[in-house]
Please model this.
Amino acid sequence: MLEFFITATDTDAGKTYVATSLVYALVAKGKRVAVYKPISAGCQQVGSLLINEDAQLLQAAANCQQLITNINPIAFEPAIAPHIAALQCQKSINIVEINEHYQKLKTLKADVIITEGAGGWRLPLGNGTFLSEFVQQNHQKVILVVNMKLGCLNHAVLTYQSILADGLECIAWVANCIEPMPYLQENITELESLLPIPKLACLAFEQDMKVAVKQFDLSALY
Ligand SMILES: Nc1ncnc2c1ncn2[C@@H]1O[C@H](COP(=O)(O)OP(=O)(O)O)[C@@H](O)[C@H]1O
Ligand SMILES: [Mg+2]
Model:
């Protein structure tokens, strides 16, 4: 079973977009793919459930018939830092709980599990803990989504170095070109030399995710 964790240089960098298109690409290759979005903030109350759009997008792409509450067990309504959202409702985020849900998900016997992080690499969970510790405890291989904009070289290198300093493998990166950037190609070339790992995809702004799905070089994953 292959286990990947999708992180990014920042929030709104394209983690969900990349994770979802990667899931579609793997499913198209005949893989059984399960998905996990342990923590979300920015949800809609639907009956007794808090539903997160990222989790819905991942659910639609994956093919292990997972319930939305298994995909996203920890959900908060306001779109704010999750541990602050937790405090607002007198809760705390427990890394043991995140791990327990992940272990359940592993019993689905998927070929690949794609986990989408929240925010950037060093997302605080409160009480001095970070979501990156969950990745350390489960040894997922990390994929770094770089939102191609001014400042991304610094963010990408800092994130890459933090992942390595945590004893983890960052196996590939994605150039996600959401907004116009002056000297885009020069910046991509710079990242190719700064990050000594394969580029999994270079995605332009694509309304139709089906176009993005075709851009992935899946050989970087195996
Ligand atoms: N390559 C892309 N082409 C088109 N839209 C994109 C692309 N990457 C991200 N987006 C859009 O940008 C927004 C932020 O991306 P998202 O994947 O939700 O970021 P994150 O999960 O890191 O917070 C979303 O509306 C998403 O659909
Ligand atoms: Mg997301």
In short: Residues 8, 11-17, 54, 176, 178, 203, 205-206, 212 surround adenosine-5'-diphosphate (ligand 1) (CB under 6 Å).
